[in-house]
Design a protein that fits this description.
The protein folds into two domains: 4-61 and 157-313, Rossmann fold; 62-151, 3-Layer(aba) Sandwich (Rossmann fold). Helix 10 packs across helix 11 (287-297). It has eleven helices and 14 strands. The chain has 321 residues and is an alpha/beta fold. The strands form four sheets. Strands 3-4-14-9-12-13 form a six-stranded mixed β-sheet, sandwiched between helices. Strands 7-6-5-8 form a four-stranded parallel β-sheet, sandwiched between helices.
Length: 321
């Protein structure tokens, strides 16, 4: 299997993730992990490591890709623009505030109050328009054309993917015994990044990488069935983080080649995972951040008894209620 590249031949390979990790390290947190027995989650005994990525700046893994874009790409005087369900927008707003860059963030009406509040709190110009992420993206593209601002894509951009991939590098170091990583899929940036980070080259990946997405927003499942990015439904309790309508060309290329599989979970399972995180571990996470764990709890992904599973809890931009 050949490394995936974009139109400018930016290689999506493990070495690129390593280089990005060194560049963004001063700006991002090394988020912790906790390893427990799966029996604590009502499952057959076996190890599971939770990567607590919701403890990252701006409340999600997205800040890794935001800083990678803003540090590695040339920024015009007009600053940057980003369309988002919420988490990516908050991440770009945070990174821009740290680096002193003007930012305008576009989110749809379904974006949660917690995410809207974060974006405003970081000082970015905020535009709330459209029913879905795709609607907000269209408005942001018009602004980029008229203003000359640099677009910072939420998932289908090499820098975004490589930044997200630093989550996988950390996991390899923090949980060296892990043999499988579960991560949620919206546009595919996180899963593609992790797959790139643990890639060993032409022979494939040393870790099994599994994507999880809501039944009501099966973006990568639809793409895999169609042989490329295709429109999918956007109805899920995780609509503000895992429902962009279609995955990206780059993310699809990486995941279709290097991920082991993608499984679907119900909204009920996501809610169960969210409640279980709170009841068993006193962790508050948003629905999209719980999707990967929902695959374990609902047994849509069933590990072998000796399989060490790592799960990315990717975001917590939600209210306490």
């Amino acid at each position: 299997m050949n490394p995936v590249t974009d139109a400018a031949d930016v290689p999506l390979i493990q070495q690129s993730v390593v280089a990005v990790e060194a560049r963004i390290r001063p700006y991002v947190r090394l988020t912790p992990v906790i390893t427990i027995d799966r029996a604590e989650l009502g499952l057959p005994s076996g190890p599971v490591t939770l990567k607590l990525e919701f403890m990252q700046h701006s409340g999600s893994f997205k800040v890794r890709g935001a800083f990678t874009n803003l540090l590695l790409r040339e920024i015009p005087d007009a600053g940057v623009a980003a369309a988002s369900g919420g988490n990516h927008g908050a991440a770009v707003a945070y990174a821009a505030s740290v680096l002193g860059i003007p930012a305008r963030i576009f989110v749809p009406e379904v974006s949660s109050p917690a995410k809207v509040s974060r974006i405003r709190g970081y000082g970015a110009d905020l535009v709330i328009e459209g029913e879905t992420y795709s609607d907000a993206l269209a408005v942001s593209q018009d602004w980029v054309t008229s203003s000359g601002a640099l677009p910072v894509p939420a998932f289908d951009q090499p820098e975004t993917i490589l930044g997200a991939g630093t989550t996988g590098l950390e996991l390899r170091q923090q949980a060296p015994a892990a043999t499988t990583i579960l991560a949620g899929v919206g546009g595919g940036g996180l899963l593609a990044g992790i797959a790139t980070a643990v890639m060993t080259g032409p022979g494939g990946s040393e870790l099994r990488v599994v994507g999880v997405e809501p039944e009501g927003a099966p973006t990568m499942t639809a793409a895999l069935a169609a042989g490329g990015p295709a429109d999918a439904a956007t109805g899920s309790i995780a609509v503000d983080s895992l429902a962009p309508r279609r995955v990206g060309e780059l993310t699809y290329a990486v995941i279709s080649r290097h991920a082991h599989s993608v499984v679907l979970v119900s909204d009920e399972a996501i809610g169960d995972a969210q409640r279980m995180l709170w009841e068993r571990l006193r962790i508050v996470a948003e629905p999209g951040g719980c999707a990967a764990l929902a695959a374990l709890i609902s047994r849509r992904y069933q590990p072998e008894p000796d399989e060490h599973v790592a799960v990315v809890v990717s975001g917590a931009n939600t209210t306490l209620a």
